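#onboarding

Welcome to the new folks! Below is a worked example of what a typical request in this channel looks like: someone posts a single protein sequence, and someone else replies with the predicted structure as tokens. Don't worry about understanding the tokens yet, we'll cover that in week two.

Example request:
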Amino acid sequence: MIKHPILPLFDADSEILILGSFPSVKSREQGFFYGHPQNRFWRVAAAVCEEAVPVTIPEKKAFLLRNHIALWDVIASCDITGSSDASIRNVTANDLRMILEAADIREIYVNGHTAEKYYKKYTEKSIGKAAVCLPSTSPANAVWNLERLTEAWRVIRS
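Example response:
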């Protein structure tokens, strides 16, 4: 059983919440979200927000807060082999109330179908809010190129 090692990033001004499934090995090693260099999250988010791609963890945190984006994952702990979403078992979900009580979140988005699956199974009923599923920024989602991902993700700015 692996526990989620990264605290959620949000503040009182956060308006949208983006949830992944569970941090990759690289993200767990770095101690921050979307740490694998092949994951396109930071490139897509920067393009959507019309900003330069943040590189360091402090730059990433400042970027998210400046753009009123809260970031966390659906899963608090699970059994997982490497970074494979397909191997996830024995899930415990994160309690999103700390974010939802502190910020006026207008929309919740999930990054890919695995996050959507676990959100629907463990979280949606308890908080009474559906999430919008966006195509995964993972390199495993090779059918979506950077341009298509960016276009689909533009919904977070509407």
